[in-house]
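Hi Y.,

Following your request, here is the sequence exactly as I used it, all 349 residues.
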Amino acid sequence: MNRHPLISRRNFAGGTALAAAALALPALRAQPKLEKTKISIAVGGKAAFYYLPLTISEQLGYFKAEGLDIEISDFAGGARALQAVVGGSADVCSGAYEHTINLQSKNQMFQAFVLQGRAPQIAFGVSTKNMPNYKTVADLKGKKIGVSAPGSSTNMMANLVLSRAGLKPTDVSFIGVGTAAGALTALRSGQIDAMSNTDPVMTMLEQKGEVKIISDTRTLKGTVEVFGGTMPAGCLYAPLDFIQKHPNTCQAMANAIVHGLKWLQTAGPGDIIKAVPESYLLGDRALYLASFNKVRESISLDGVIPDDGARTALKALASFDPTVKADKIDLAKTYTNEFSRRAKERFKA
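Below is the corresponding structure, written out as tokens. Let me know if you'd prefer a different format.
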């Protein structure tokens, strides 16, 4: 007789222990052990708005909050940053999504795992000093065009604009000028005749009448006009085997970026100025803020890569790059939303 109360008490105790364990599970699941805490990220032109979510997440300590020790190496353009990852001197690249398609066409499997920009934020402008009588894209034949770095997304955008006017990439000379003060100098000193670049550089030149913009993807509307659909832009991407071996680390990086995206949705001009390094303002705070307002809508809201955007990117690349065969690319392997969706849920982005 006496055994029953004991049994039921033991069962009850066991039950409460189970219930407590069940309650503790989400907390345990929220902080899985990171496979690697020290991560190097290569970026091509960190001062550009294209990479603002990366800068914000770094400056506000969101990577640290996820248990990550991030080292960011800044290169002249996305193509250089990519070389660092391919060469093994960096783990992850913060760069243009379409590089994952390009790499797959060369049998290198890379995957994007969190989106920073939902429009390329690139503007193509002609120097009003060197080409005052510019009429059509055909006038660019034989001219020097500045891009962040040859092979970068700024180069791709220029190729696309040229190809629509019947010009081949070989009909012009592309010159790498970076995305900051060097780009301004190259155009102002007349070293280049036109430039495809990001903000704040392009807005600074545009406001002073130094370039005439002929193609613009700084807004969602402009992006659809140029690319024929939504176009995923800056993202974090890495070799597929790195992502498979370090899922918790990739989740932590996606969390940090989505946290930054969430902060950016409500940040005011003053908040941005306080958060970014002084040198990013290129000596003109008011113009920096004017260009931020211009590109604001092109920043991703939640880190998720749109499926139709991936198709747009493939179509654009295949239209001017004969080495990219659309039917040979497995788009599903170029990106994953499993990390960004979890981060989106966690931060209610």
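The CA atoms of residues 18 and 24 lie 10 Å apart.

Thanks again,
Q.
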